[in-house]
Amino acid sequence: MTTDFAATKRQFLLPEGVIYLDGNSLGPLPRGVAERLQTTVADEWGQMLIRGWNTAGWMDMPARVGNRIARLVGAEPGSVVMGDTLSIKVYQALASALELVPGRRVILSDTGNFPSDLYIADGLVRTLGDGHVLKTVAPEAVEDAIDGSVGVVMVTEVDYRTGRRHDMARLAAKAHAHGALLVWDLAHSAGAFPVHLARDGADFAVGCTYKYLNSGPGGPAFIYLAPRHQDAARPALSGWLGHEAPFAFDLDYRPGAGIERMRVGTPPILQLAALDAALDVWNGVDLDDLRARALALQDRFIAAVETACPMLTLATPRDHGQRGSQVSFRHAEGYAIMQALIAEGVIGDFRAPDILRFGITPLYIDEGDIDRAAAILARIMTTGSWDQPQFKARARVT
Amino acid sequence: MTTDFAATKRQFLLPEGVIYLDGNSLGPLPRGVAERLQTTVADEWGQMLIRGWNTAGWMDMPARVGNRIARLVGAEPGSVVMGDTLSIKVYQALASALELVPGRRVILSDTGNFPSDLYIADGLVRTLGDGHVLKTVAPEAVEDAIDGSVGVVMVTEVDYRTGRRHDMARLAAKAHAHGALLVWDLAHSAGAFPVHLARDGADFAVGCTYKYLNSGPGGPAFIYLAPRHQDAARPALSGWLGHEAPFAFDLDYRPGAGIERMRVGTPPILQLAALDAALDVWNGVDLDDLRARALALQDRFIAAVETACPMLTLATPRDHGQRGSQVSFRHAEGYAIMQALIAEGVIGDFRAPDILRFGITPLYIDEGDIDRAAAILARIMTTGSWDQPQFKARARVT
Known about the structure:
The structure is a homodimer. The first copy, chain A, has helices at residues 5-10, 32-48, 52-55, 61-72, 86-99, 115-128, 142-145, 168-177, 269-278, 287-308, 334-343, 367-383, 389-392, and strands at 12-13, 19-20, 29-30, 80-82, 106-110, 133-137, 150-156, 181-185, 204-207, 222-225, 313-314, 326-330, 346-347, 349-351, 355-359. In chain A, helix 2 packs antiparallel against helix 9 (269-278), helix 4 runs parallel beside helix 9 and helix 10 runs parallel beside helix 12 (367-383). The relative contact order of chain A is 0.17. The longest helix of chain A is centred in the last third of the chain and has 22 residues, at 287-308. By secondary structure, chain A is an alpha/beta fold. In chain A, the strands form 4 sheets. In chain A, strands 4-10-9-8-7-5-6 form a 7-stranded mixed beta sheet, sandwiched between helices. A 4-stranded antiparallel beta sheet of chain A has the order 11-12-15-14, covered by helices on one side. Chain A contains 13 helices and 15 strands. Chain A has 2 domains: 5-30 and 286-392, Aspartate Aminotransferase, domain 1; 33-282, Type I PLP-dependent aspartate aminotransferase-like (Major domain) (Aspartate Aminotransferase, domain 2, 3-Layer(aba) Sandwich), CATH 3.40.640. At the A-B interface, helix 2, helix 3, helix 5, helix 6 and helix 9 of A face helix 2, helix 3, helix 5, helix 6 and helix 9 of B.
């Protein structure tokens, strides 16, 4: 192992007394971000004004930052571009993918997918009409459900509740064998473990950056389009910055070169600057090291919790190959238990109806954190201290 | 006039030696923004981490900031929400509007509309298929082209090149008389002059915030949905934060209450914080005062330029009622002339093929700026100093 994880941990500003196991929802603040934002605001926006689009390189940021993400997800240079939100990028990917398989009218997904992906797909088939449907099956039934009627398989690699992981290479191969395309949602994958989009046959992929890539609340999403599809794919959300010549202001749309066509409107430069600074954390990180250490930390947490808290049921697969970077347990009173944990400085989150989620990333989590978090959880469960009105009252949780 | 425009000017950080006449493209930096971003990053994201969504009120920001915008555009409370880019919001508005007029398949727009709106509409009709078309006519022909075949009239109030302004109340009345709906793009209206969405019968409206609302590069867009349509409108881009209960994680989409349904994905909190701080500039600003003073400054600029530079042709209507907040002149060498102006500290911009644009807003532009800018332009035109290779070489312009 060549990666120095003590050094990566020092690159985050973590609050005193907090063990942060919710980077799968919102990554913590990397040190360089605040300073970079000050530069972007005061020196670029403030001094360059409109000239910043060229002089400060704002206009090229979606592609430049996209190339930094590409390296983390095994994508070819020039195949990833930043912008919008994950939901918007799902819409773009689905609509473009469907157009590449004329005559196919079925989007296949699974009931473990993040609801927003299903909502977006549902909205798209409604807009398309003409017999298009969204078909959902159980996660373990996706592979068998791929047949010649399916146009696009849309799967989130890691289940946001259980942390169960799909075998994406296998799904891609099956999809391609039946003439379908694969849209791969990397929300809980990018920055969580090595991803090999090019090697594993992805057609489209989408992901967010505010989880394991630590870009901050509302950081921009990304979209991957395999080079073999770039010339043929027509963007459904055809905005001016995806045009071949945005500043010609032609009345007719002509898609831009390569991945640029998946851009839509004006990019969010402040959020992109925060992301760009946050990506510096990855310099010197070997993703295989990250994966090996994440699994070791997860196993350590699972063992400690299962020993001390038999009332919690592991929801995450034990098989390393079927696991993402989070560990989830089930308990009917999961909501209150999580509130009690948060009150003691162990921040995970809750997902209805009964899931306690703990994101475990070696970038800023070490053995000491794992042991302390497990000990606090054990104390809460054995004393029953979660069973208090202030923990059971439901506020909106994110 | 009750508004103190010397005070509003002091609220902007303008570079020394620059006269900034490009706020119609990117507004300058208001004083409070940098500090607000530091708070959002260090105290909220850094310390609250995931809890910021509730504790710092991030989750409600799209609606809360939307209500601040609503006041500036004459909209009812609870009718405006922030998010995404203007292009995305155009797509949402068009798709939802079309669904409210079943059987109508024509989107009517004009050739003076911003190309991105046309591209988005073109993409939408392609996705909808089934005979949907985008029909464009000359700007002055829009009103006459509204007939019973038209489902949605999509018009940008102020022409991005000439500054010519549509009579939106009149177009709304005509559209409604023929059973059509109106989508009103406020890109060059919001913050530029008083807008009366509710009074003037808008059905949908969309706008951006990085121009006259000074939210910074890539600031979020907004969408308005008239209260009378809120229960019936179905969002086409149906993301999880537009769901009735996002954190129930239901598999089926149910649109959220009122304007909330037009939300899509995770809101860009850093950009929203910048916008929220930038909106403080508007405290104490009377929009009728703003309009009166903007017209006076425009007239002063037009008079000075027409006197000294007969080779420039006014592209903006002389009639106050047909004018937005920018003044444009035509010249075949407009690009080089603008570069020469910028080199002398007068920042406007150029729009192909021959338009020099000057955004004139009293928030930070006064008579001294107007006189100096006109004098510098006069010198450049009379000496012909624009006719140099470094000004004629085309770089990408924004």
